[in-house]
Amino acid sequence: MNRQRLAGIEKEISKVISQVLFEEVKNKKIKGIVSVTKVRVTEDLKFADVYFSILPYAGQQVNQESVLEGLNEIKGFLRKRISEKINLRYTPEIRVKLDETIEHAIKISALLNEIKEKWYNEVGI
């Protein structure tokens, strides 16, 4: 299957999962703190690696293990919703992955701010 078609399928799967997480999921472990950042589908459409970002809310720490456990509990439900909303011969099996790029970006930003502060203090600005 060509890459352009796979990219379209990945985009549709991402939309469906995001909508289901926002509107239908009642699991307290993941409600409101999880977003889909990326979906990668294998060429044979057997598997979809879905990357989730876990967003802390109101300054509270979030137990990532608990959230991943909650996502793994509902992956069958997500697959069912995908099969209902997207017309595919075979609905891929969902593999839950954690996307840590936002966390890395926050850490890098904090380090850069720290370096900038030190430099301003040394220069006297």
Q: What features would you describe in this structure?
A:
The chain is an alpha+beta fold and 125 residues long. It has a single domain, classed as K homology (KH) domain (GMP Synthetase, Chain A, domain 3). Helices cover 52% and strands 18% of the residues. The chain contains four helices and three strands. The chain has a three-stranded mixed sheet with strand order 1-2-3. Strand 1 (34-41) and strand 2 (47-54) form a beta hairpin. Helix 1 crosses helix 3 (75-85). It starts with a helix and ends with a helix. The mean pLDDT is 87.
Strand order of the largest sheet: 1-2-3
| Helical run tally | 4
Biggest sheet descriptor: 3 strands, mixed
Low-confidence region ranges: none
**Whole-number radius of gyration?**
19 Å
Q: Order of SSEs, N→C?
A: HEEHHEH
Tell me the CATH architecture: 2-Layer Sandwich
**SS-based class:** alpha+beta
**How much of the residues is beta strand, in percent?**
15-25%
Q: Could you name the CATH class?
A: Alpha Beta
Mean pLDDT metric:
87
> Rough shape?
elongated
Question: What is the count of β-strands?
Answer: 3
